[in-house]
Amino acid sequence: MAIEIPKSLDQLPTTRPRYVGRGIRRVEDVGLLTGRVEFVDDVVLPRMLHCAILRSPLPHARITGVDTQAAEALEGVTAVVTGEDARRWSLPAQSSPEGWGTHCIAGDKVHYVGEPVAAVAASSRRVAEDALELIEVDYEPFEAVADPFEAMKPESPRVLDAQETNVMLDRVFTWGDVDGAFADAAHVFQEKFRWNRLGANPTETFGCISEWDPMSLDLTIHGSIQSPGMFGLGRAATFGLPSNKVNIISHPHGGSFGGKGGTRGCDISCLLSRKVGGRPVKWIEDRGEYLLSGGGQAWDRHYEVALALDAQGIVTGLKVGLVDDLGATGEAYGAISAAKPLAAFTGPYTIPVAQYDLKLVATNKLPCGPYRGMGPPPHFFVLEQMMDIAARSLGEDPAEFRRKNFIPADQFPYTIPSGNEYDSGNYGEVLDQVLALSDYSAMRAAQAEARAEGRLVGVGVASAIEPGVFDWNAYAIVGMPGTGVPEGATVNIDILGNATVRVGFSLEGQGQYTLITQLVADYFGYEPEDVRVVQLDTQSAPPSFGPGGSRLGVAITGAVLGACERIREKMARVVAVLMQSEAENIEFMDGKFMLKGAPGAEMTVAEVAGTMLARSDLLPPDIDPRPEATHVWTAAGRTPADEQGRAKSYLTAAHAVHIVQVEIDAETGMVEIQRYCLADDCGTRLNPDTVEGQTEGSVVQGIGAALLEEYVYDEGAQPLTTSFMDYLMPTVFDAPKIEMVAVVTPSPFTPLGAKGCGEGAIHTTPAAVMCAINDALAPLGTSAREVPASPMRLWKLISEARNRASDESNDD
Amino acid sequence: MKPAPFEYVAPSTISGVLEILGQNDPDEVKLMAGGQSLMPLLNMRLSRPALVIDLGKVADLDFIRETDEGVVIGAMTSKRAVEDSELILREHPLLWESTVAIGHPPIRNRGTVGGSMAQADPASEYPAVALVLGAELVAVSARGERTIPADDFFVTFLTTCLEPDEVLTEIRIPRLAPRSGWAFQEVARRHGDFAIVGATATLRLEAGVVVDPRIAVFGVADRALRFSAAESLLTGQAASDEMIDEVASQAAAAVEDPLEDAHASADYRRHLAGVLVGRVLREAAVRAAEASTGA
Ligand SMILES: Cc1cc2nc3c(=O)[nH]c(=O)nc-3n(C[C@H](O)[C@H](O)[C@H](O)COP(=O)(O)OP(=O)(O)OC[C@H]3O[C@@H](n4cnc5c(N)ncnc54)[C@H](O)[C@@H]3O)c2cc1C
């Protein structure tokens, strides 16, 4: 029987939703705030050992010897593993593109600073670290390559022995007659940009406990794991195990933002557990390891971009050239971040044709992983700078210039040249709202006054799309196979009518358990206290990907409502039998099943559940007497990618416009954000408080990207930013007051009309802040093309511009 | 990130500390105050003492006292206590202002005044403030007590003139001369970070000219720097914009080998030193002028 999942709030079986669509107190918070939640480092298993990992101090070197004898002899040490154990018991990591993975412990050579070369299991982490100091590794250093342009040259040192080149991918994707558009253009603008490497820094780093049953060869892993199902499949592949022999128990974790990679450390703890006969081995990545060699580095990019416009200032073509430095291997799926922009390549604009010249390059740096937004934030940074360059050169206001290039509200669903379909939107309305919120014209007037005083005040307007509810097909161009990302939920009603929802992912911070509670409460006419959410391990859970790609809010809504629908349908049949009628005559509303035309003939959900569980003898024989159902939701209508990478990939397209005012101290280069305003439209807001929380956090991460965060490597590929002294995360003191307004254009394709919104503002914020900075710099005739816009970089630009100006006036 | 093994003692008197120092090779010993700099060094195994002597239980090192000459602060006084002190706010607003620029409240709760002086981080606020305020640092050892002017105390990166067996006990800060102007400014990437560069100054105005200017910067070189040539240049001059610009650029030019790191080049640091010296002199001159007319 086909299940109809409600497409809007008014289709829920309730007179008036009491919870969905409102901010309710989060069910996660009591456990988090009282410290009762069990994080992986709280877990102590019998006979557990602790792992510490020895890491390469060199970016590129042959390993000529590893002597572990002294370490093995240290009291408290149980085992040491090296590259030899990794080769004996595991396979090279899977990678994207394929063939760019290595073993979890270096064998013949090291490829980046921080690469594991050996590891110890001992009675405590401290003893394990003491033992690391006793391991002697002989290295024969090679020249390292840190610059992707150097790495592409044939004479460059080669990063991986198994490859003939450092170029992982070199392809041009063309969507439409791009040459024609540029040939016919009235204006063409071209510019280069640099986005420096940065990334996720969750409060909690990665951690795991691995336990290898030596009899059955079953592998059980506890961990702070973002996507337990995927993680289990990856471990099975690495250890050549059938996937049903790997069980992942994910614990609540302190954020991820894509940074919970951790696969190498986890695989190493698995090797150690195997070597010590199956004792559990705990590995907790410390912050030093995380910053040096964890899952938190992404987007190390060099762009060259061109925009074509017609005489009316309508953008008619876009060319993006990207050289993406992925670091030493493809194991951390950094390549996906280069593919995802296809889901929103032309942003919110009607740009009809586009081209992507994509080069993925290996260097002797840490392999890049995913980060919140997964690639589009730098893409929108360059697109929005180009929009400003065009608007400034044509003398147009940046807000109005964007408006006339927006996809009109009546053209949705709208297919963009790179193949994805945007579900819905009202971009002009979003712009209007943020113009009003910011009092844009007053802001411009104040800016003019400040400029007259010689102050560098700028206003930035930027607009971007947040692709939501990802599908693997979006990443076909970097070798990710398949289509379809399922999320399942099992809803069970007990004999007293209480509801338990079982899912396959754990707490990460976004509040999905609260959302599930809201949905079930409104569906069955319950209070939040009547609903319990439970997480299952991967061998017991329904299919699940978990959070990622701005998907889980929408996907779990589909799964939970689908399961609720199935229960309703089953219960309606039971009620029909009990009331001696037909299921079509049974209506369900506000938690009650009612017989049509028979006032007073009604049963509550609890009564039906109690009857089903206690009196199965009364039920028709073809009815399963458990008031329980599982629904597995996946986005409908996703298409396989064509040869140019085009597919219906991400299901939803949320939209935002941000307006930012900054002032630059011309003498120091310091940027002060004076106002931050935004309007966004992510369809139906299932929990507006959650959306606002996600938005605020994402704005702050975007500010970090624009102004602060950068993993710096020197020319020899040595990392220079290996602690929080040097890798600068924004703190609460760096966060401006964020003024927000919402526009709601429901998605026609999703449960309740909600769109993905978890990654959110980071798509727009770096662009908006950089637009504001460049607006401030405009009177000097200079502009910033590199992110982050550090005070030193801005000071250099400003002083060079002033020197040029004074040279010119001297020449006169 | 676990420290290498070490022994730990927490004596309750200064003589107890000196006795333990006497029984051990002082080069193998580390004194611990608030631990805010030492603990990270231990955890990263960059410092590997055999013995850590915790000063936290030593009596009579945690105080702020007013004397005839000024203010005396015990080495183990927390920055938070300085921040909360009415006396400091009234007598030494410059010290107060530099205190709240140090890290964040949890760091100031634990970090001590003596620890910052002894740590001698080149980007630290307190050494520069000690220079312009003419502070004296008192140290004891088995050999007795000595008083060291701030000008002699800070030697280079993380190095003071303290001998390994000496313990810093107090910092004496003379009262600012009446009608002094003062200022403190720093440029840091984020609120609470160690500064890229900071500057501080005090001066007086008498009959329209600058008297006894003191100028120091931090974050620029291997230690906090005082600029005596620039100070002499300014002495006896009107605090005009031109004069201050000249003094600032002289100070910037006087920095030898500015520091360089991932966030700031040597050029940028030198430039900032000039900008900030100019800014603190202007601000100090305004305060001095207000103090003169107010009086
Ligand atoms: C996140 C963070 C941000 C920070 N930001 C700043 C900042 O902006 N500005 C700044 O100045 N500091 C900053 N600090 C450092 C902080 O101020 C430290 O507290 C200070 O540097 C050392 O003080 P402590 O009491 O913690 O000393 P400890 O760390 O205990 O000791 C530091 C050193 O001084 C020696 N020592 C301590 N007391 C004595 C004594 N009485 N006699 C002889 N030797 C002694 C110790 O042996 C050790 O070598 C920051 C620290 C952190 C963790």
Query: What form of chain B results from the Cα inertia axes?
Result: globular
Shape of chain A: globular
Q: What ranges of chain B have pLDDT less than 50 throughout 5 or more consecutive residues? A: none
Q: N-to-C SSE series of chain B? A: EHEHEEEHHHHHHEEHEEEEEEEHHH
For the biggest sheet of chain B, the summary is:
5 strands, antiparallel
Alpha-carbon Rg of chain A, integer: 28 Å
The CATH architecture category of the domain at 422-468 and 649-812 in chain A equals 2-Layer Sandwich
User: Largest contact between protein chains?
Assistant: A-B, 29 and 24 residues
Count of individual beta strands of chain A? 29
CATH class of the largest domain in chain B: Alpha Beta
**Tally of alpha and pi helices of chain B:** 12
Q: Could you tell me the number of beta strands of chain B?
A: 14
Kindly state the percentage of residues in helix of chain A: 25-40%
Beta-strand residue percentage of chain B: 25-35%
* SSE class of chain B: alpha+beta
User: What structural class do the secondary elements of chain A suggest?
Assistant: alpha+beta
Task: Look at the structure and give the CATH class of the domain at 422-468 and 649-812 in chain A.
Answer: Alpha Beta
Ends apart, CA distance between termini of chain B = 57 Å
Helix content of chain B: 25-40%
**What amount of the residues of chain A lies in strands?**
15-25%
Low-confidence stretches of chain A: none
